[in-house]
Write a structure and sequence with these properties.
The chain has helices at residues 9-17, 23-41, 49-64, 106-113, 156-163, 180-186, 220-230, 248-252, 275-290, 306-321, 340-351, 354-367, 372-393, 419-424, 430-435, 464-478, and strands at 44-46, 75-79, 117-122, 169-174, 189-192, 212-217, 261-265, 294-298, 399-403, 438-446, 452-459. By secondary structure, the protein is α/β, with parallel strands linked by helices. It is globular.
Length: 488
C-alpha cells in the first residue's frame, strides 16, 4: 500500500489526474501520519479530520464529474495567521481563542478555486513574533530532525509538518525570515515572494510593509506551483502588484546555471558564523559554479544596519496593527473589569505573551513624541539605503547566494531568555524584507550532528523565476534528503 503522505505536490497532482489515488485516500494517509507523529512534533494547532475528509470527497466527486482544476484534491496546511473561512484563526494567541475566520484570505480563495483541500492549522510564534515557535500560546513545536531543537519560526509548525511528512506543503508568512529560517532549520524549501507578489488580504498583520505569504514545500517545483496559483493583483489589497507572473515553468526547465551571474555578498560571510553552516553553504556555492554560474563577490555595506532598522520598523507597525485586539473590537475580553481602561489593560495583559508585549512596547516607544525622528525616521532612511544597495548589486548580478542563518537549529529554551541574540539570528534574512526582494531557502547539507543547513538565494523584486531556477537546478543536482522521518 503506497504512503501518499510522502508525495510532493506535483506528484500528488499527477497521481490524482491519472486515477492512481483519490483525494480521500491521500488525506487519509496524511491523517494517519499526523496521528502517529504529531504528538512528538507538535506541528498542528487545529485539525478537523471530518472536515478534511469532507473536502477530499467533494474534490473526488468534482473530478468524477469532469470538473478539473490545477490542485484538485491536493491537501495543504495553513499557518494559523491566514484566514480560512470556517476554520480557527487564533494566531497561536490566547487573545484569539475561539475565533473562527468568517472569510478566505485572497491566497486561500485562489487555492480553493484551484481545487486545494485545507488540511489543518500550523503552529507558530504568537502573531508571527519569534524565531523558534516557542512563543506560541498553544504548544511548543519540535524539529523533526532532532526533537531537542526548535524548528525555527515563526512558521515553525509549517516547516516541521512538511519535514515530517505530515503535510505535502504548508503556507507560512515571512516578515523578516519567518518562512526561510524554519525551512533551513527543518531541511525543506521556503519561498519568500517579492513584496506585493501575493495579496496580504486575509493575512493577520504583524508589520504591513514587510509581511508576505509564502509556501513551505518539499521541492522548489512545488513552491513555484503554489506561487503561480496564489500570485497576482488583488482589488482587496492595494499593495498587491499588478505585474505579470514570470514564466516559472520555463525557468524550471533550464538544465543548468549557464549565463547566470551570482553574487556573494561579503557582509553575509562574517566572523562568528558556525563553521559547519559556513562549510555547507560554501560547498553549495562551489556546486553552483560547477553547474555553470559565474560567481562574483559583491558588497552590501548597509547590511550592518538591517537588524536594527527591521526591529524598529516592524515593532512600530506591530504596535499599530495589534491595537485592535483590545477586547472590544476583536479578541477575548477580561471579565469583571471596573471601567473600560481597566478592561483594556487586563485583556491585553492576559491575552498577549511576553514576546508580543515586548514588541508592542518597543514599537510604541519608537513612535512616541520625542523619539520618532531619532529612531523610526532613521530606520526608514536606513531601509532606503539597504534597498539602494540591492539595486546597485543587481545591476551586476542576477541573484545572490548566502546563508539563511548563521547557526544550526537552536536547542529548545536556548533563546527564550536571550531575545537579543535571537534577533541577531535574523541578520541574513531581514534585508530582503526591508528591500522587498524575493528570496528562497533550499537545503544544502547537514552538520555532523545531522542538522539541516539552508542556502539562501536572493533575487531582485518580481524575479522569482531567477531564484527558482537557481534553486531547482541546484536541488536536482544535490538531491538532499527531503524528509526527517523514514516512512515504513
Amino acid at each position: 500500500m503506497p504512503q501518499f503522505n510522502t508525495l510532493t505536490v506535483a506528484q500528488a497532482v499527477d497521481l490524482l489526474a491519472q486515477g492512481g489515488s483519490t483525494s480521500e485516500a491521500l488525506v487519509g494517509d496524511l491523517l494517519e501520519a499526523i496521528r502517529a507523529r504529531d504528538g512528538a512534533v507538535g506541528a498542528y494547532v487545529h485539525l478537523d479530520e471530518a472536515d478534511a475528509l469532507r473536502q477530499a470527497r467533494a474534490a473526488d466527486a468534482q473530478r468524477r464529474a469532469g470538473k478539473l482544476a490545477p490542485l484538485l484534491g491536493v491537501p495543504i496546511a495553513v499557518k494559523d495567521v491566514i484566514n480560512v473561512a470556517g476554520q480557527p484563526c487564533g494566531c497561536a494567541s490566547r487573545i484569539l481563542e475561539g475565533y473562527t475566520a468568517p472569510y478566505d484570505a485572497t491566497a486561500i480563495a485562489r487555492l480553493r478555486a484551484a481545487g486545494a483541500v485545507f488540511l489543518g492549522r500550523a503552529n507558530m510564534d504568537e502573531f508571527a513574533m519569534g524565531s523558534t515557535t516557542e512563543n506560541s500560546a498553544v504548544k511548543i513545536t519540535r524539529n523533526p530532525w532532532d526533537p531537542s531543537r526548535v524548528p525555527g519560526g515563526s512558521s515553525g509548525g509549517s516547516a516541521a509538518m512538511v519535514a515530517a511528512d505530515e503535510a505535502l506543503a504548508a503556507l507560512g508568512s515571512d516578515t523578516g525570515g519567518s518562512v526561510r529560517q524554519p525551512a533551513a532549520f527543518c531541511g525543506c524549501v521556503g519561498l519568500k515572494p517579492s513584496y506585493g507578489r501575493i495579496s496580504r488580504y486575509g493575512l493577520t498583520a504583524f508589520a504591513s510593509s514587510l509581511d508576505q505569504i509564502g509556501p513551505l514545500t518539499k521541492t522548489v517545483a512545488d513552491a513555484a506551483l503554489l506561487l503561480e496559483v496564489m500570485g497576482g493583483a488583488d482589488p482587496l489589497d492595494s499593495t498587491a502588484a499588478d505585474l505579470p507572473m514570470p514564466d516559472l515553468a520555463a525557468a524550471l526547465r533550464q538544465p543548468d546555471l549557464q549565463g547566470l551571474r551570482l553574487g556573494l555578498p561579503r557582509e553575509y560571510f562574517v566572523g562568528g558564523m558556525d563553521a559547519e553552516v559556513e562549510r555547507a553553504v560554501q560547498d553549495a556555492i562551489r556546486h553552483c559554479e560547477r553547474l555553470g554560474a559565474r560567481l562574483t563577490e559583491v558588497s552590501l555595506p548597509t547590511t550592518k544596519y538591517a537588524v536594527a532598522a527591521y526591529y524598529i520598523i516592524s515593532c512600530a507597525e506591530a504596535s499599530a496593527n495589534l491595537a485592535r485586539f483590545d477586547g472590544v473590537r476583536y479578541g477575548r475580553r477580561a471579565e469583571d473589569a471596573g471601567d473600560p481602561y481597566e478592561m483594556y489593560c487586563r485583556t491585553r495583559a492576559a491575552g498577549f505573551g511576553a514576546e508580543v508585549k515586548r514588541r508592542i512596547i518597543l514599537g510604541a516607544y519608537v513612535l512616541s513624541s520625542g523619539y520618532y525622528d531619532a529612531y523610526y525616521l532613521r530606520a526608514q532612511k536606513a531601509r532606503t539605503l539597504i534597498r539602494d544597495d540591492f539595486a546597485v548589486v543587481f545591476k551586476e548580478c542576477d541573484a545572490l547566494l548566502a546563508p539563511v542563518t548563521p547557526t544550526p537549529p537552536y536547542k529548545l529554551g536556548e533563546m527564550l531568555d536571550n531575545p537579543l541574540q535571537m534577533y541577531l539570528g535574523d541578520i541574513f534574512t531581514v534585508p530582503a524584507n526591508l528591500a522587498g526582494n524575493c528570496a528562497l531557502s533550499v537545503p544544502c547539507g547537514f552538520t555532523a550532528a545531522g542538522l539541516p543547513v539552508g542556502l539562501q538565494i536572493i533575487g531582485p523584486a518580481f524575479r522569482e523565476d531567477v531564484i527558482l531556477r537557481v534553486g531547482h537546478v541546484y536541488e536536482q543536482s544535490a538531491a538532499w534528503p527531503r524528509c526527517a522521518v523514514k516512512s515504513g
